[in-house]
Amino acid sequence: MSAPTLTRRPAASEHGALGAREPRQGAFVRAVRRNLTAHAFLIGAVLCFGFFSWYPMVREVILAFQKTEKGVVSWAGWSNFVYVFNDPDFALAWRNTALFTLLALLLGFVVPFVVALVLNEFRHARGYLRLLVYLPVMLPPVASVLLFKYFYDPGHGLFNRLLELFGLPAQQWLQSSDTAMLSLVIASTWMNMGGACLIYLAALQTIPGELYEAAELDGAGLLRKIWHVTVPQTRLILSLLFLMQIIATMQVFTEPFLLTGGAGPEGSTTTVVHLIYQYAFNFSNYGAAAALGLVLLVVLAGFSAAYVRLNRAEQE
Fold it and tell me: For the segment 235-249, what is each residue's pLDDT rounded down to a tens digit?
């Protein structure tokens, strides 16, 4: 008579682990099926962002340390950066870019805020006025620039006609190194102020009216109410748009390229991005173009890091 065989029963803990694992796997599969469409859209967006944004950035970093001679690509080390830093136009381009940024901040940053303050006081036709202010943004940039090129015409341009009405001498707006940069800033301000103006206007409408009433009871005038009420209440929007204005103006290209041919009279409108364009498409020196683009990227990243740090310090 054979001895009875004993079968080992799984412990209770093993049953619990197996039972818990199966529902977890089932829940995961159900969650994936339920969110499959969302995941598909997300993957598509990530792939597009990676291909059109991250890949060019990585390719630019690699290209900055390479050189191409007779179709042969080889590593160049820091020679592209040495070439860029020793270029006489390097300092000129940065000086012109800094000047354009400064003038654009004085006009393009202040003027939209003032226009938003004026629009905020209107109680009627506010929608029409918003459309009127935002209309230049809806126009193609090239069309807007060519329109200003006609306005700046020294013979029969609109601006010289207005000067003649007031008995003032006509100006060589784009042909003189003294007025060429200011002409670019005026055109750029008119083209781009609509978006900033609407953002300012939205921020102004969130300010409680009680704050202005309290300021009036304290005897504050218009300027003091703007300085002590409006500016503090919109400080976050002001600082953010200030940073965006710096980043946008330091990458200016369309206005000088179409209005003054890029360099302008005596090189007065040569900007960093136009110098990158010259390296790549006029001199076929893609390594130098990538190196200068990488320098510009580092400078703009420095401005962004400074903004984040200052904003964090204010919040703390």
Answer: 888 888 888 888 888
- Mean pLDDT over the full length of the chain: 84
Question: What is the four-CA torsion angle of 33, 38, 42, 48, rounded to 10 degrees?
Answer: 110
d(CA 209, CA 116): 16
The confidence score (pLDDT) of residue 18 equals: 45
Which two structure tokens, joined as six digits, stand for 299? 């400078």
Question: What residues form DSSP beta bridges with 66?
Answer: 75
**Residue 200 is encoded by which pair of tokens?**
């300012």
Helix (H, G, I), strand (E, B) or coil at 66: strand
Residues 207, 214: Cα–Cα separation, whole Å: 13
Q: Angle CA(139)–CA(104)–CA(170) in degrees, nearest 5?
A: 80
- Say if pTM beats, i.e. exceeds, 0.90: no
Measured distance CA(91)–CA(270) in Å, rounded: 10
Task: Please list, in sequence order, all residues whose beta carbon lies within 8 angstroms of the beta carbon of residue 273, skipping any fewer than 6 positions away.
Answer: 251, 252, 253, 296
What is 80-312's CATH number, 3.90.1150.10, 3.30.2420.10, 3.10.450.50, 1.10.3720.10? 1.10.3720.10
Half-sphere exposure of 97 (CA within 13 A, CB side): 24
Rounded CA gap, 264 and 158, in Å?
Answer: 21
Helix (H) or strand (E) holding 155: none
Residue range(s) in the chain whose domain bears CATH number 1.10.3720.10: 80-312
Helix, strand, coil distribution of the chain in percent, nearest 5: 75, 5, 25
Q: Return d(Cα 63, Cα 56) in angstroms, integer.
A: 10
* Tokens matching residue 16: 């619990």
267 CB-near residues (< 8 Å, 6+ apart): 89, 92, 96
